[in-house]
Every structure is written in C-alpha cells, then in structure tokens.
C-alpha cells in the first residue's frame, strides 16, 4: 500500500463521527475518505473513493451494521473495524458482526464518549493500521462446521498430570481463526486455554457463540476452573488468566493486574504460566494478531520443553504476533491455519509426547 490509509466512518452519531475524524485525522498516515450516518449514504459516497478501511457502528437506522457487512463481504471485501457500545446486548450483536467479516472491535461507552475516544486514540489508530494490512480471504474460506454432535456430557477429568494442555494466543483476526480451529476438534480434545485480545463483556458472548458451533465445550473461564479434556476455557476480557497446578490437576487462575504488552488479558501472562507449571506436557500456539504479545511467553514454553507452533504468514489476517515469535526462535514449526486442528489432534491422540 502506498500513500496514507483511507478511512471511511459510518456512525449515526454526529459526535462519534466528529471525534473519530479528529482522532484518526491526527495521524499523517491516515486520510479520512468520508463519513456517513448509515450504510446506505456510505455506499453512495464510497463509490467514487473506495476506502482501505471502514470504521462501522452496528446499530444504525435504515440498514444495520451486520446486514451491511454481509453485503460488503459478498460484493467488495474491505477491512472493517467495529466501533460498538460496551454493553452485554451490544456484545452479542457485535460478535455477529465479527462473524460476518469484521476484523477488529473498538468499544465506546454510552457516556463520556469524547474523553474515552480521545484517551483511546492509540488503540483506534493501531486497529485501523492493522486492519489496512489484513488478509481477509484466507480465514474466511477456511471456516468449518462441527464434524459431529455436541457431547451429551462433560468428559472425565484427567487422573494425572501427563495429559496435554494446549495454550493458544491470538488477537486481530482471531475470532475467525479460533472458529476455524475449534470447530474442527472432537469432543474429547485435550484441555485448551485461550487468550483472545477482546474487550470486557465480549468474551462471554464469544465463548457462548463458539460453544454452539463446536463439539467440545467452550466457556469463559472462572477462577479455579479445572482444565480437562473436552473443555476450552477463554480468558475473560479485562482479566489475566494463568495456569496453575493443584495436586494432580491443572486449574486456571483469573486475576486482575496491570496490562502486559498493552493487553489484559495478555498472551504472555498465560504462556509464561504454562511454561512454568506444564512444561513439556504443553502445546503452545500463537496465531494472527498485531504486536508482539505472546512471543516471549512462547519462547519460555519452548525452553521449558513444550512443542510450539506459529501460524504462517499467508493464513494470518495480521502477521504480527506470529512473526515476532518466529523471529525470536520461539516456534518449533510454522503451520497454516487449516493445519492447526489436525496438529492438536495428532499430538494428543497418536501417543506422541510433547517436547
């Protein structure tokens, strides 16, 4: 891409349009291509100057964001950053938008909007820049449906600590990547712990969505949850998650604390704890995302004897976190997204030891 990134803002609030224009316009690498109060007006304006990135609200008059996204991804795929109100109801709606093809989420409160957007300008700018580099097709074409019905009951817990724990970290583009991997896993997959960079309130809705799509059970982690086969635990937004040993059991701790690598939850926090307590019984996977969160933690896992995998460039929406891990020597192998599930299954069911 040459020249500044062109951005089009679609939001029915004039205040939001004004503040976003100021926040994004302050960066010389970004050009505001236009603004509109709803997608219908936007489509008319964008025909003469199609943007590199669209910043989109979800709940708008005449055409909602989800309907617009589906139309956009069918006719002219374009990176989209969702700018949505932080509410439980809004979380479910926004995740539908993510499933329809959006790349990232930025949250906005109902009150104190101007101060919030200005204080969060760095996050907004980074999201737009990462989205401009997004590869949309690889992830969107690799999504799969569950291969068998959901299990009738929760699988039995492990009786010793030699069972494998899979630790997975991802960020921008990760909602699609996780769906592509988890929907290919059987009901008796190894216990999985995940950090997906996502705002508070959105992780519960995301876990609920995945739970309906997957053969294994997926839920937002609660402090003290036991890691068992067939269960996937997703770190709550706004909290760190760590793996710990409790006798012969693996459990998770969900804790507060300052952001690490600008994120809470942080992939590094999870990976370092897995390196410490699981060692060679762990499999570490770092997937699509912006920045370097997780690269150091994945290296710690490798040094502790774990097998480590990074997603390859071509299948990443944003090849940031995996690239950093590869450059640091943290990844033993590099795989496309389409091969991740098979690798997890193979290393847990073929009698292979991790290490």
UniProtKB/TrEMBL annotation:
* Ranges of residues in domain Response regulatory: 6-123
SUPFAM superfamilies, sorted: CheY-like, Methylesterase CheB, C-terminal domain
Which CDD domains does the entry mention? CheB_Rec, REC_CheB-like
Record has Isomerase as a keyword: no
**InterPro entries this protein is in?**
CheB-like, CheB_C, CheY-like_superfamily, Sig_transdc_resp-reg_Me-estase, Sig_transdc_resp-reg_receiver
Give EC number(s), comma-separated.
3.1.1.61, 3.5.1.44
Q: Which residues carry this modification: 4-aspartylphosphate?
A: 57
The active-site annotation reads 171, 197, 293
Give the free-text PTM comment from the record.
Answer: Phosphorylated by CheA. Phosphorylation of the N-terminal regulatory domain activates the methylesterase activity.
GO cellular component labels: cytoplasm
Catalysed conversion reaction: [protein]-L-glutamate 5-O-methyl ester + H2O = L-glutamyl-[protein] + methanol + H(+); L-glutaminyl-[protein] + H2O = L-glutamyl-[protein] + NH4(+)
Its BP terms in the Gene Ontology are: chemotaxis
Q: Which UniProt keywords apply?
A: Chemotaxis, Cytoplasm, Hydrolase, Phosphoprotein
Which Gene3D superfamilies does this chain map to?
Answer: 3.40.50.2300, Methylesterase CheB, C-terminal domain
The record ties this protein, via Pfam families, to:
CheB_methylest, Response_reg
Per UniProt, subcellular location reads as:
Cytoplasm
Does the keyword Cytoplasm feature in the UniProt annotation? yes
Family per similarity comment: Belongs to the CheB family.
Query: Which NCBIfam families has this protein been placed in?
Result: PRK00742.1 (NF001965), PRK12555.1 (NF009206)
Name used for this protein in its record: Protein-glutamate methylesterase/protein-glutamine glutaminase
Q: Which gene encodes it?
A: cheB
